[in-house]
Write a structure and sequence with these properties.
469 residues; Aminopeptidase; Glucose Oxidase, domain 1; 2 domains; eight-stranded mixed sheet; five-stranded mixed sheet; 23% strand; elongated
Length: 469
């Protein structure tokens, strides 16, 4: 065992004390299977099957916000694509949720320097009155500053949160910034505000606003909420520096829709020896409505589907099954993920591990695991096969991806194949999330990593453990 793996064993969190007893065998993988995994890796680098899949999704379906006609078209597309690619079983499972419609969205500075502003409504925001909402701006540097402000300080005003998200390869700037999107409207309403504008949760300088989900709170007034493009947030800041009241008019036609039933789409390469045991790989099929959902998350669908399809080309099926899950409605709260976890909660011991691709199409640079300590030598061998792809082993605290959170919380093993997300939030939830942002070479590298993970997991003796969190 390498020193790096040993160091990570020493850092394991207490969850590793609760390990699976489902297999007495020490986890291991044969030399022949390692050789085959390497061959699959190399084959993935020669094919652009993943690019063909995401091109098909973005061209033939495009935007697919949950509950829209695009959502329904995406489900049909997913079923047809998995069948076309030769999956042994393809089926859907229902997912029901409330819907929301965007409508007209405009904004402008009324005074002291009249100018148009570029905004977009945040998901599930209420609309304004038909004539719009006009009020003075009150700015706060961060959400915490708003929370800590005196009661009533924003009476009759539109709150503006200026917080800037910072770029990072691992996307670590997102968490500190996104709280303003999720809770900003609630906290602004508590201070008496009649509306809220936030600087878009993104890292670009384009004049495009980033949408995304927000929440209201029972007992707190529901006020209109929208995001400003970065240049327009700068513009408001510059106006405010002139120490004059800045009055803005916002018009949103957003409104709640009816209940809707979509579907998780599932394709399986059925195992030859232990078909009841399986690995989950996949992404989410829905997107926001502004772009074509190429990076978020057409790329993840393409990467994982292409990896499973490569394994299906082998002369013999793997020992265990491989499931590609195209999750419904991730964007509005992991709705499809929760539905899948609930539907399959009685078969947790059969889910050997899971990994979701949902961070664009940048190259993978690190492999993280969440497995029992006895399985770390297999993880080390897996990482060794990925080394030629420029991937190193990280730690044993993987998250697995957003749609695997419900299953991970139930104790399944997960892996994180960490992509370079330096530029991901330039495009995230904007009209600029389109196919031209994807590089075939990077997508193929992702597919190569996922095919190694999926094949080794399907072939290994023993398991990665359960009850891990």
């Amino acid at each position: 065992m390498s020193m790096k793996i040993v160091q990570n064993v020493l850092l394991l969190t207490p969850f590793l004390l609760c390990v699976s007893l489902s297999s007495a065998a020490t986890p291991s993988i044969s030399e022949q299977d390692l050789k085959t995994a390497a061959q699959l890796r190399d084959e993935a680098l020669k094919t652009s099957k993943g690019y063909e899949i995401v091109e098909s999704l973005t061209t033939e379906v495009g935007p697919r916000m949950a509950g829209t006609a695009g959502d329904a078209a995406a489900v049909k597309w997913g079923v047809a694509k998995l069948k076309e690619l030769g999956f042994d079983k393809v089926w859907t499972e229902p997912v029901t949720f409330p819907t929301w419609k965007r409508g007209v969205e405009t904004a402008e500075v009324i005074s002291p320097f009249p100018q148009p502003l570029v905004i977009t409504a945040l998901g599930f925001s209420v609309g304004t009155e038909p004539e719009g909402l006009t009020a003075e701006i009150m700015a706060f540097d961060t959400l915490d500053d708003l929370i800590n402000a005196p009661e009533g300080i924003a009476d009759g005003k539109i709150v503006f949160i200026k917080h800037r998200m910072h770029k990072a390869r691992d996307g670590s700037g997102y968490g500190p910034a996104v709280a303003a999107r999720g809770r900003g409207a609630v906290e602004a309403a508590k201070k008496g505000a009649v509306g809220i504008l936030i600087r878009s949760i993104g890292t670009d300088s384009h004049r495009m606003a980033h949408t995304g989900m927000m929440r209201y709170e029972e007992g707190t007034p529901r006020i209109p909420a929208a995001a400003l493009s970065a240049p327009d947030a700068d513009l408001l800041e510059n106006m405010l520096k002139r120490k004059q009241p800045v009055k803005v008019k916002v018009t949103l036609d957003a409104q709640d829709g009816e209940q809707y039933t979509s579907h998780n789409v599932i394709g399986e390469i059925t195992g030859s020896e232990k078909p009841e045991e399986y690995i989950i790989i996949g992404g989410h099929l829905d997107s926001w409505d502004l772009g074509t959902g190429a990076l978020d998350d057409g790329a993840g669908i393409a990467i994982t589907t292409a990896a499973a399809e490569l394994i299906a080309r082998l002369p013999q099926r793997p020992k265990r099954s491989i499931r590609v899950v195209m999750f419904a409605n991730e964007e509005q709260g992991l709705v499809g993920a929760r539905a899948y976890a609930e539907a399959h909660k009685d078969e947790l011991q059969k889910i050997i591990t899971g990994a979701e691709s949902d961070f664009g199409a940048g190259k993978i640079w690190r492999l993280d695991s969440r497995v029992k300590s006895e399985a770390l030598p297999v993880v080390e061998q897996m990482a060794k096969i990925m080394e030629p792809l420029g991937i190193e082993y990280g730690n044993n605290r993987a998250g697995g991806g957003p749609d695997l959170i419900p299953l991970r919380q139930m104790g399944i093993s997960v892996f994180s194949l960490r992509q370079d997300g330096t530029d991901y939030f330039d495009y995230h939830h904007t009209p600029d999330d389109t196919l031209d942002k994807i590089e075939k070479e990077s997508l193929d590298q992702n597919t190569a990593a996922y095919v190694v993970l999926a094949y080794i997991t399907a072939q290994m003796d023993g398991d990665f453990g359960s009850g891990l969190e």
